[in-house]
Amino acid sequence: MFKEIIRLIYWFKFFLITGYLTKSKSITEIGAGESQRIQKVLKIMSFHGNYSSVDLSSHHPPIIYSSFKTNFYNQDFFKFSKKCDLLIFDHSIDDILAAMFPGNNKNYSKVMDNLKKFNYQDHQFIKKINRLILHTKKLIKPHGRIIISHYLTKYDEPRGTVKIMQEFLPQLSSIAKKIGLEVEYYSTRFLVLKKLGF
User: Rounded CA gap, 141 and 130, in Å?
Assistant: First the structure.
């Protein structure tokens, strides 16, 4: 519970600092799973617009008495095509990459074991990241933003993925620049990408 409150505070501070919510009418969250964190933050900050959640495995019902409209899509990220102002990955972009490795993608713990296979020197792995970011780029409007939240979890040390996950945002940032995206905001926890010239 305490960790969840801390994560909510990080998002709250992020939106206060950046002001993205005041300029956005449509938000899509990718891979929320069972989490309602982003919906809670939007409710607290009185977001008035459209919120969409795209998740292949599961989704929660909308937060009750929210100030925004909600849509849920039980769909593969790579088959989703609706554009938005803000595309959010709340610690889910690594999950999507992990699921892109061949194997048993129905067992979550086995999928997450694939984090150990992340190799930023491997051409095939970089191709996976390129595919993911290129599709992400198609889902934002011209003035849109891609917001990636990432941080270490209690599972990284026992899994042996601390170093891999510490390098994750810097690597995504570098690859995104090579395929026509610009880094607008960067911290140890958040990466914001936008199209060049916007």
Answer: 19
What's the pTM?
0.94
Per-residue pLDDT of the chain (198 residues; tens, 9 = 90+): 788 999 999 999 999 999 999 999 999 999 998 889 999 999 999 999 999 999 987 666 667 778 899 999 999 999 999 999 999 999 999 999 999 998 766 788 888 999 999 999 999 999 999 999 999 999 999 999 999 999 999 999 999 999 999 999 999 999 999 999 999 999 999 999 999 988
Residue 46 gets the label, from left (phi > 0), alpha (psi -120 to 50) or beta, of left
- DSSP states of the chain: -HHHHHHHHHHHHHHHHH-GGGG-SEEEEE--TT--HHHHHHHHTT--SEEEEE-SS--PPPPTT-SSEEEEE-S-GGG----EEEEEEES-HHHHHHHTSSS-TT-HHHHHHGGGG--TT-HHHHHHHHHHHHHHHHTEEEEEEEEEE----TTHHHHT-HHHHHTHHHHHHHHHHHTTEEEEEE-SSEEEEEETT-
**Mapped to the 3 state alphabet, what secondary structure does 182-196 carry?**
EEEEECCCEEEEEEC
Q: Where are the domains of the chain?
A: 2-195
Domain boundaries 2-195, corresponding CATH code: 3.40.50.150
